[in-house]
Amino acid sequence: MKPLNVAVLGIGNVGTGLIETYRLNKVKVDGQTNQPFNFKYILVNSIDKLRTIDLKDSILTTDFQDIIKDDSIDVVIELIGGLHPAFDYMKRALEAGKHVITANKAAIATYGPELRQIASDNKVLLRYEASVCGGIPLLNTLSENLLSNDFEELVGILNGTTNYILTRMTEEGLEFDEALKLAQEAGFAEADPSSDIEGDDAAYKLCILSHIAFGLNVDPKDIPKHGITKVSKEDIEYAQELGYKIKLLAAAHKKENTVDLRVNPALIKDTHPLASVNHEFNALFLKGNALGELMLYGKGAGAMPTGSSVLSDLIAISKKTPSMIEQKTTIALENRSLLKYYIRLEVIDEPGVLGKVATLLGEHGISLDSVVQRARGNKVAPLVFLTHEIDKKTLDGAIKSVEAYDKIVEIASLMSVEN
Amino acid sequence: MKPLNVAVLGIGNVGTGLIETYRLNKVKVDGQTNQPFNFKYILVNSIDKLRTIDLKDSILTTDFQDIIKDDSIDVVIELIGGLHPAFDYMKRALEAGKHVITANKAAIATYGPELRQIASDNKVLLRYEASVCGGIPLLNTLSENLLSNDFEELVGILNGTTNYILTRMTEEGLEFDEALKLAQEAGFAEADPSSDIEGDDAAYKLCILSHIAFGLNVDPKDIPKHGITKVSKEDIEYAQELGYKIKLLAAAHKKENTVDLRVNPALIKDTHPLASVNHEFNALFLKGNALGELMLYGKGAGAMPTGSSVLSDLIAISKKTPSMIEQKTTIALENRSLLKYYIRLEVIDEPGVLGKVATLLGEHGISLDSVVQRARGNKVAPLVFLTHEIDKKTLDGAIKSVEAYDKIVEIASLMSVEN
């Protein structure tokens, strides 16, 4: 049978993983598609660069025009990353009637609605499984296998770098800076780790997941977002004492016709399946209105895992499986009003301070789930509270009056608690 | 658009869950398929039985002939369970050119090859997502979303009843009989629990998974199988001391062109993701040659979860998604030769017994990973070993010479240890 002609834009880790995965599993894959894949072009920055992978079956080019002008190209796979020129290349490929696959979370989170519209106008497919959590088939599972469900809740550990850092902080009692250094040495954090540790990477992924699950088109900038740079060893220890782990969670909670999206470090019960997702692993926990609880767990990054997800999309295109679903949605973004909170105060260690603070919180209608007071044997001591569900305005008012109390040195930490 | 006409055979828990899930999510589902589902017939034992679900839109019949003779029926959903007449009805429906969906693991494990052939000969689809682990989309994920991978290992907790029993034994220090009684009271074990506790249910599911993952057609009777009735509170405690949990594992290990299938209680490291799958939950952990480790976790049973899986198959048929894959396989069933073992002996509590047993094991070439000796303060004491990898013949020889030693009261327990 005629091969499917493919052009790959960019041949870094993921591109190499894609081609190596196909070579490794060619017999199985071709047996399923009845149509071998021909990686006809590869767009590179430099033709002569030394590469670990043998590309002699492909035409290397530095000019995107060569690809767009070749009518025999059926599929363009964008693996350049970043917004530009990645978006522009995808747009032109779709307009030229070519199917597009990408692993680019920033571009899909930012320009997804526009790209999906162009794909639909040109009757071609746009697939992006690898853009969210590398090797875990999250998007295809949500959009194809779980269509019989309405989703009530998605809670994910979607960023491997931050999960690796928090795991080492937890297991070895390290501070954030020490664990970040170890993550960089182990190759799990980049030299400039800001997109991971500030939560941007997780927010992009949550944005894409919310489109697949709820049909929502959200600007990733509108997702409330806190990174993990302020999480301290001390908070991790108090959380453990209370039976919780601290994880960077990217969560969507649906309530009637609104959904709350947020990315932040949060406390999650030890017994929750997400609490045992450690190191560089990723997981998505969800609740469907029929199937109940489900979790998918695996490697969120890496050349071969991510390459194999790109290859899965190529197989789907070869089998003419339609694009990711376009749901008509009536759902709007709205922040959850009621949350549970973890509050750590540093206070002057004197009799009566705990009672006074608890009274102040009570006067604002805040009832407490747990309290930990631990003497340090010096003048300043920590005071830790877990609240029941309260709205943010009530919390802010209470915090203000607690801050005004002269025995309070600092509001050292404030995080949400997930059930 | 013309509706898809469906006949449902049997309206117990799963049938009720199917229809309720469709009613609950009709707007979303119809929006995706553009073809509403019409549950035209329901095959029942008694027309007049009082039911919790309103079925006035369907024709209730006690005669399968009514369904098979009606050319307007596109899909037959078999939810009777058991081998006969379920198999015969599915065969006749496929031969009459109707697509078939089933949740029947016994029938698919036993007659899968024959039913798949009849479906293929008649150019109709046969789907059975709900036959393995209720609400978790295992089969569709393996066969559709992970096609880019070759599978090296599948290890599953596929039976909710036994996992519930083992969890309560572990958490509360109960013996098997006590925990079984609690499981029956909680509705997680049937009055006759033998198919669950003897491992038959898990073996059926493993048989179906091996077909999907490896293209293997195995008679479920050929899968080596041990139930959990002999697992004692004591073994669970020793396992915990050594850093392991005891779980009923259904596992497939591939090595070149052979695969080892087995169902048995086994020790699994505390840090393994499967170790924290508790109570009635199910999970499948797998290794793909490109994606690495992946785990799917969720509810393996229940009316709505299982019904929603049946509904997913119905959606796939409406969208003309092909049957589960038919892989050409060159893989044969062959038992793994090397395993690690957990051995618990009851011995006369005298000096030198440990040394003598360790020497006997050493003489048979068995090297030890861990040893636990604990005095009970009476004449008989337990002696626990974890071995390194050995073949079964070596183990059997060693056990025979240990048994012959006159200080040995009993070989109380022997289980494999999974990495």
Write the SSE topology.
The structure is a homodimer of 419-residue chains.
Chain A: E1 4-9, H1 13-24, H2 26-33, E2 37-43, E3 59-61, H3 64-68, E4 75-78, H4 86-95, E5 99-102, H5 105-121, E6 126-127, H6 138-145, E7 151-157, H7 160-172, H8 176-185, H9 194-197, H10 200-214, H11 233-241, E8 244-255, E9 258-269, E10 281-288, E11 292-299, H12 303-318, E12 332-333, E13 338-348, H13 353-363, E14 368-373, E15 380-387, E16 390-391, H14 392-404, E17 408-418
Parallel strand pairs in A: 1-2, 1-4, 2-3, 4-5, 5-6, 9-12, 9-17
Antiparallel strand pairs in A: 7-8, 7-10, 8-9, 10-11, 13-15, 13-16, 13-17, 14-15
Low-confidence stretches of chain A: none
Strand content of chain A: 25-35%
CATH names the topology of the largest domain in chain A as: Dihydrodipicolinate Reductase, domain 2
Distance between the termini of chain A: 53 Å
Major sheet summary line of chain A: 11 strands, mixed
Q: What is the highest CATH level, the class of the largest domain in chain A?
A: Alpha Beta
Which structural class best describes the helix and strand composition of chain A? alpha/beta
CATH superfamily of the largest domain in chain A: Dihydrodipicolinate Reductase, domain 2
Alpha carbon gyration radius of chain A: 24 Å
Counting DSSP E segments of at least 2 residues, the number of strands of chain A comes to 17
Note the quaternary state here.
Answer: homodimer
Shape annotation of chain A: elongated
Number of helices of chain A: 14
Number of domains of chain A: 3
State the share of residues found in helices of chain A, binned by percent: 25-40%
* CATH architectural category of the largest domain in chain A: 2-Layer Sandwich
Overall mean pLDDT of chain A stands at: 93
**Chain pair with largest interface:** A-B, 54 and 54 residues
